[in-house]
Amino acid sequence: MTSTSLKDRRSGPDAGPPPPAARADRGRARRRALHWLTAVGFQVPALVLFGVLVLLPMLFALYASFFRWGGFGMPEDYIGGDNFTRLFQDPVFLGDLWRCLVLVVLSLAFQLPFALALAVALNQRIRGRAVYRMLFFAPYILSEAITGVLFAMIFAPDDGLADNILGAVGLDGLGGQWFADTDTVMATLFLVMTWKYFGFHMMLYLAGLQSIPAELTEAALIDGAGPWQRFRNITLPLLAPTLRISVFLSVIGAIQLFDLVWVTTAGGPDHHSETMAVTMFQYGFKRYQVGYASAISVAMFAISLVFALAYQRFVLRRDLEGATTTLRGGGT
User: Fold this and answer.
1) Residue 246: other Cβ atoms inside 10 A
2) Which residues contact residue 183 at a Cβ distance below 8 angstroms, ignoring those fewer than 6 apart?
């Protein structure tokens, strides 16, 4: 019998089972296919929702920004880039940019350091620190609408709680038109923002502080380092990744600020507390200039995107490279 006939008999219907190596390869291929199908099955619903609720509105807003459109029917009056030209000639929008910058600077200079100081204090072994953490974090749980209504009543002129407290301690001259005065509205608004959001950043810092090994602080204490030296040389460098994330969230939040401002002041008086989101809402839903409002939304998105990419490139790069190195090292 020739070798050819032997091969034909082995590959025929009476051939024996395939070798173990071939069965193992087929099993691995089936498992890989099953894993791939499972991953796709879990991702498709999320991708569909993201496309329908995020990507499509963004693309349509970009499309509508090139039209003079009132929001009814489909955009037809094409005007090219006139909405964007108008945007940067509009004193209200230019004022929005300035107020956004003011809020960012105030947040970085006062709100975040205040949250960090509280986090460091509440990270110590003090009685009732869990209660203090809960009380300081509670304002963040409240919705912006409730917070706005609450402080609109607190800072109501003449009979508000703030004026009554100042009058009771003999400082009634400091009270007045908190939200109604163009000179005080931004300071009052920032005070409300700080009360609302500092608890969130405080909890971020607490989480970062609790991840710092206690042995480092104890070793520095044994070496005779004082509280400020321990904070500057140990706590602050190890907390830097958390601080960078907190700064990023604070800036993005200031760019997109809307609901708290709308409930408290609606952008008044005379646009002195207006933000880009409030201006967009005013033009889109009050004046029915949806094309121009879409241009404002595109400008907000572009500002946020440029800041996010620049921040990731120049500030978060070290953290991201460290995470990538850790993942690669863990996979080897």
Assistant:
1) 23
2) none
- The token duo for 209 is 């502080």
3-state SS, residue 167: helix
Residues 6+ apart with CB under 8 A from 67: 75, 76, 77, 78, 79, 291
As given in the structure block, the two tokens for residue 111 are 């709100």
Q: Can you tell me the distance from the alpha carbon of 251 to that of 240, in angstroms, rounded to the nearest whole number?
A: 17
How far, rounded to the nearest angstrom, does the alpha carbon of residue 27 sit from its chain's CA centroid? Answer: 44
pLDDT of residue 105: 96
> 331: exposed, middle or buried (C-beta count within 10 Å: 0-12, 13-18, 19+)?
exposed
Could you write out the DSSP letters of every residue in 168-237?
A: HTT-GGG-S-TTT-TTTHHHHHHHHHHHHHHHHHHHHHHHHHHTS-HHHHHHHHHTT--HHHHIIIIIHH
Check residue 125 and give left, alpha or beta (phi > 0: left; psi -120 to 50: alpha): beta
**What is the structure's pLDDT at 29?**
80
Q: Which two tokens stand for residue 79?
A: 């005007």
pLDDT band at 16 (very low <50, low <70, confident <90, very high): low
Q: Residue 297 belongs to what H/E stretch?
A: helix 290-314
- The first and second tokens of residue 77, run together, are 């009056």
- Best CA proximity match to 183, nearest among 99, 92, 272: 272
Q: How far is CA 79 from CA 62, 222, 283, in A?
A: 13, 71, 17
pLDDT over 70 at 6, yes or no? no
Indicate if the pLDDT at residue 193 is higher than 90. yes
